[in-house]
Design goal:
This protein has about 550 residues and is of the alpha+beta class. The chain has helices spanning about 5-35, 50-70, 80-100, 110-120, 125-145, 155-205, 225-230, 245-255, 300-340, 345-370, 385-400, 420-440, 475, 495-505, and strands spanning about 210-215, 220-225, 275-280, 290-295, 380-385, 405-410, 415-420, 445-455, 460-465, 510, 520-525. Helices cover about 55% and strands about 10% of the residues. Strand 1 (about 210-215) and strand 2 form a beta hairpin. This is histidine kinase.
Length: about 550
């Protein structure tokens, strides 16, 4: 945590006083050394050698004790500085009194003491130091004059010293105020720059656009939290990214070779969204680095899905009636053929085939109509645990056969923004699909439904795992294509419909590589703070926004 301006000034004052005390110790040592060497001080004669020696030794002892206290970490207070400056002025003038008066060079040391006092404790106290030093000089000169040890000219010298004291005080007061003002201005600017830097950092980290700074070789210099979500599937303050993923590195190389071309979108992993990368060089002196913007194409995909559904709806509405009329006639004719008394077993078998395939075609039409029906999306924030428990219970009650659905709710509460009816429709398709394949392998209608949150704790998910035979690589490649099915009776629209509904709500449905028996489909929801787009029946209108 950064120190406050008051604490910084206090520390600076302590450092300056420590330096000043070193100066005091050196001066007092020089005075004692001159006495030991029996040398005249500044060409003058001592009036009272014994008192001069006692004063010099006392001054040295006082400074040494002060230095030891400072070294021991004694807390310095303003009155300690005031007492030290007053003691210096008193000691210096006593030494001057015992060594020849104002004409002695010792009295000049008082200028440094007054200057130091004005630097360490600026304000009116500094003027008091100058006044006290002037008074001490005049008293010293007057006492020596009364004793006949000096002349009237020492009074004049004392007055001149007083002027010097006040000049030094006023000059240093002015300099100190200017320095304090400059220091305060610099501190305010530094604080403003720091706050601006923190603000920029928070804005970058909270953006839903991924921002990366990378070297041309793919080494990362900086990555925000959104980039971790788009590339790793987890939103953290410091994404675990040190180098660019291979797919993004390929697009960076492509952009470096042809800067004018736009690179195609990519998907780093199955559980991450499709991402569009844009590149640009930084300005000097960082022109060797590349700034990368990662945009989630989910909104574009969502809008495209809605437009596709709208177009499909117009097409389906136009042909559904024309298909259903002859289909109904075919189904009715097959039923009559099967009930005819003249029909043999072969005819009844053929009538049954016609009846089943008529029902399959009708189911395809129903699914396409449901897929393309343009109704207003009602997105709301849901508690997945509570909602999912109710949906599973309703499903089990509506099925005539015994169904075993193992519902595992995460201890961490998960929230998601979704249209409840559309989520129920997508989940029902996944459950129907899973139960059907589980019965193929185990002979029982059973599966597991699990909820949880991603590693970054930002997004919820639902897993639907069956106990079927699983899928090979060729089947996985066309898993979500419309009208693709591995069963003769299937329509091939269940998974396609579920994925379309998820993408329309900015969620992702994919096959999870779990390494367990059967298949596990995962629905990963968008961040609960991200609102989905709402397209009303009158057309595509954007009513949601992303904070």
């Amino acid at each position: 945590m950064e120190a406050s301006p008051q604490a910084a000034r206090k520390d600076q004052r302590a450092r300056l006083f420590r330096i000043y005390n070193y100066y005091r110790i050196v001066i007092s040592l020089l005075l004692v050394a001159l006495l030991l060497l029996e040398t005249d001080l500044v060409g003058t004669r001592l009036h009272n050698e014994w008192l001069f020696q006692a004063t010099a030794l006392t001054y040295l002892a006082m400074n040494i004790v002060t230095g030891m206290l400072l070294l021991a970490g004694y807390a310095l207070r303003p009155w300690h500085i005031t007492v030290s400056i007053l003691a210096d002025i008193l000691m210096i003038h006593l030494l001057a009194f015992f060594s020849g008066g104002i004409s002695s060079g010792i009295v000049n040391l008082g200028i440094i003491s007054v200057a130091a006092g004005n630097i360490l404790v600026p304000g009116r106290v500094g003027i008091f130091y100058a006044a006290l030093a002037t008074l001490a000089s005049l008293v010293t000169a007057a006492l020596l004059l009364l004793q006949g040890l000096s002349g009237v000219d020492d009074i004049v010298r004392a007055g001149v010293m007083g002027l010097i004291y006040f000049a030094a005080a006023f000059l240093l007061q002015n300099i100190t105020r200017r320095l304090a003002s400059s220091e305060q201005l610099a501190s305010e600017r530094a604080r403003s720059i720091e706050e601006l830097e923190q603000l920029n950092h928070q804005i970058i980290q909270r953006m839903h656009t991924g921002i990366l700074v990378a070297e041309p070789n793919g080494a990362l210099r900086m990555a925000n939290a959104a980039s971790g979500e788009l590339l790793l599937g987890e939103r953290t303050a410091a994404p675990r990214l040190t180098i660019l993923p291979q797919a993004l590195k390929q697009r960076l190389d492509q952009w470096l070779e042809q800067p004018g071309e736009r690179t195609p979108p990519f998907q780093a992993r199955n559980d991450t969204p499709s991402v569009q990368a844009n590149f640009m060089r930084l300005d000097s002196p960082l022109e060797h680095l590349v700034l990368i913007f990662l945009e989630d194409t989910g909104k574009i995909v969502q809008q495209a899905q809605q437009l596709k559904l709208a177009s499909l709806g117009r097409l389906t509405a136009g042909i559904a009636h024309e298909i259903r009329n002859p289909l109904g006639a075919i189904s009715h004719a097959a039923q009559l053929l099967g009930e005819s008394d003249t029909a043999d077993d072969g005819d009844r078998r053929m009538a049954g085939i016609i009846q089943r395939h008529s029902e399959r075609v009708n189911a395809i039409i129903e699914n396409v109509l449901e897929l393309s029906r343009r109704r207003s999306t009602s997105v709301r924030l849901m508690d997945l645990g509570e909602w999912l428990a109710g949906v599973v219970n309703d499903y089990v009650e509506t099925v005539q056969e015994p169904v075993l659905i193992d519902l595992k709710l995460s201890g961490v509460p998960g929230s998601a923004r979704f249209d409840p009816s559309q989520l129920q429709q997508a989940l029902t398709n996944l459950i129907d699909n899973g139960l059907r394949y589980s019965r193929q392998r185990t002979g029982r209608l059973q599966l597991t439904v699990r909820t949880g949150v991603t590693e970054d704790g930002q997004r919820a998910y639902i897993d639907v795992r069956d106990y079927g035979p699983g899928l090979n690589e060729a089947q996985q490649g066309s898993l979500f294509e419309p009208f693709h099915t591995t069963e003769q009776e299937g329509t091939g629209l269940g998974l396609y419909l579920a994925r379309e509904l998820c993408e329309a709500n900015q969620a992702r449905l994919f096959l999870l590589e779990s390494g367990e028996t059967g298949c596990c489909f995962r629905i990963t929801f968008a961040h609960p703070g991200r609102r989905a787009l709402d397209f009303s029946a009158s057309g595509a209108n954007l009513t949601g926004n992303e904070p």
